[in-house]
Amino acid sequence: MPILRPSSKRVAVANGGVESGINRTVLPLPDSIPFKTRQGDSFSSFTNTLVSVGRMADAGFTSIFNRNGVQVAKDEDVLLTLKGKPVMIGIRDNNGRFKIPLVAHKNGTYKPRVPTNGDVSSMEQANNVYDLPSVEEGIKWLHASCGYPVKSTWIKAIRNGHFRGWPLLNERTVNKYYPETSETILGHMQQQRKNVRSTKQPFAVADATSLRGKKERDVYIHVYDTRETTFSDQTGRFPTRSKRGNKYIMCMVEIDSNAILVEPMSSRKDKEMQRAYKTLLNRLRAVGIVPKKHVMDNEISASMKEYIKNDLGMELELIPPNSHRRNAAEVAIRNFKCHFLSIIAGVAMDFPLSLWDRLLPQTEITLNLLRSSNATPTVSAHAHLYGVFDYNKMPLAPMGCKAHVHQPSETRRTWGYHSVEGWYLFTSPDHYRTHNCHVKDTGKERLSESVKFLHKTITNPSITITDKLMNAMSNLHSAIKQLDHDASDEQLRDLSSLVNATTATISTTTTEQQVPRVATPVVPRVAPSAVPRVATPHTSAAPPSPPVIRQRVDANIQPILR
């Protein structure tokens, strides 16, 4: 091992003595482990190399010990699921040592502390993600929970730290396991931009090497204070009227945080618009943001102007007619509609669209988690308003997903089922790990901390007709290879014709058409050879026995299709 420098390490050993290190060296560990973690000290009395588990944990690695050995992997590559309570639970002190506290019992003995429900819940974290069997399914689940975002937007937000604390979410795993879903395309597909791979001849670039003189590059900066300013506008009518009577959505953009706030509306009358506007404004004031200027579209009533100027005491600015690009709310509505359309496309097949307005709370959260703050670009728009989002405290699930909601024993009958069917709407921000679901039988919403999500349509890919045909071809190829070499020529000809017919059918048939059946080859019959009859001697009263005819069958003839 390479020697870096003399060692100054002194350690206490089991016999009570103190050992001094000889040299500072580098352990022969993989290069994926940081160089500082791979450094160690050599001792003359130590015959085996000892690797610190604590230093590996500090470097972002998880060590798993069992009866067969030990495995070390990166934290983001490990997915552990506890099916029961842990036997023991410990802590790590300030010196990096792992300790299991002992508790005194009545008989004078000490035993490890029994993990409480709070300890178990803190270790389980978000059980709806950690219950999934693989990292790939976990990424699919989180992608649906975030509203099916575009890959580039999601990775940019992860790289900027917007999803810090979320399980499994890092740039490498999302790049590797990002699911290509139809829901993302249905909501975010845009028209092809101009001048992409253009066939026009580019302009000739002038040769400026012969020019003489000193180049001046003056930069003029104009600072425009955009603080305490909001923009708002309304969307068009939603195709389905909600169960609560809402048909429109008001979108408000707060410039400092770059956050988009939404509020459903039943109509576009002045009274309803004032209610929605006041609701959004109170939400901003609740987090300490008091706008002083508001920019709106030119289509506004006189009573709405008077309400903003006189009742709220804000400065009002109107956009010129047919100049939508000056209203930041127009771009916000476009981004919100793309995000919300992807969510609507990903709900369960039997999800009632009359509940679309109940999906807006989580839609707003996930949308602002993907946007960066203007005042503080290193945090998300949601973190600018409400602080860092804690996924372990408020785990999200795919909106509109089918779910089974637990029926408590106090409210169900003696022989009643333990759950009721429904759909997941959003996670309650006022409770701890509590989901708000719509129950199918009662038509009411119910809060529950125990919800089983039916996520197979999201996390498990479906098998297409092409996959089934390729699997059948693979099985047929394996069966041919396992044939004995002493098979008859007739059998080989029949199997060869069957393979050729199947291959021709697959090559000429699309996945939308039904594959024609292949006729089963007929096995040639063997004419029975004549066997002489054997006469049985007659008795005095018994009738003669029927003749027994035996046939000789060729041993080489065997069935080829079973």
Q: In what order do the strands lie side by side in the largest sheet?
A: 14-13-12-15-16
Low-confidence stretches: 121-127, 510-520, 534-542, 548-562
Residues in helix, %: 25-40%
Structural class: alpha+beta
pLDDT averaged over residues? 79
Instruction: Count the E strands.
Output: 21
Distance between termini?
A: 64 Å
Number of DSSP helical runs = 16
Shape: extended
| Sheet with the most strands, sense and barrel status | 5 strands, mixed
Q: Give the C-alpha Rg.
A: 36 Å
Strand content: 15-25%
Topology:
Layout: E1 3-6, E2 10-12, E3 18-20, E4 23-26, H1 35-38, E5 39-42, H2 53-58, E6 61-66, E7 69-74, E8 91-92, E9 98-99, E10 102-104, E11 110-112, H3 117-124, H4 127-130, H5 135-145, H6 151-159, H7 171-177, H8 182-188, E12 229-234, E13 248-254, E14 259-265, H9 270-286, E15 293-296, H10 302-311, E16 315-318, H11 328-345, H12 360-369, H13 381-386, E17 402-406, E18 419-427, E19 435-439, E20 445-448, E21 451-453, H14 456-459, H15 465-481, H16 489-508
Parallel strand pairs: 12-15, 15-16
Antiparallel strand pairs: 1-4, 2-3, 4-5, 6-7, 8-9, 10-11, 12-13, 13-14, 17-18, 17-21, 18-19, 19-20
Helix pairs in contact: 8-11, 11-12, 15-16
